[in-house]
Amino acid sequence: xxxxxxxxxxxxxxxxxxxxxxxxxxxxxxxxxxxxxxxxxxxxxxxxxxxxxxxxxxxxxxxxxxxxxxxxxxxxxxxxxxxxxxxxxxxxxxxxxxxxxxxxxxxxxxxxxxxxxxxxxxxxxxxxxxxxxxxxxxxxxxxxxxxx
Length: 148
Description:
The chain is an all-alpha fold. The protein is built from six helices and no strands. It is globular, with a radius of gyration of 16 Å.
């Protein structure tokens, strides 16, 4: 008989995130949680022994968001990887240990992703209000999560 460690908690949390993403289409004031996922991704990578399961879970959530909204697949995963490797490590080092760093990074993730989608879909409507409100709301959620 095979013994496997099935990460039931990761599947259950992904299912909750999937349901939340679908509810987000009904209630447009809910943020897509990209900033929160990026903060979780960065937090996981900065640990001494990062768990691969969390990183894979974040990537599965990102692909789920792209599938739900019929966006190009893999753009968010590549954005997270390149943003963390290039911007966080080299350009914005001042915000690595700063409390407002997660707010700045969440804001930048939204600007880059929504800017890419605007170019991809040829829809150039102003999105600054959504970017700022999503970034602030997710920053507050991340601070509550980090304190717990």
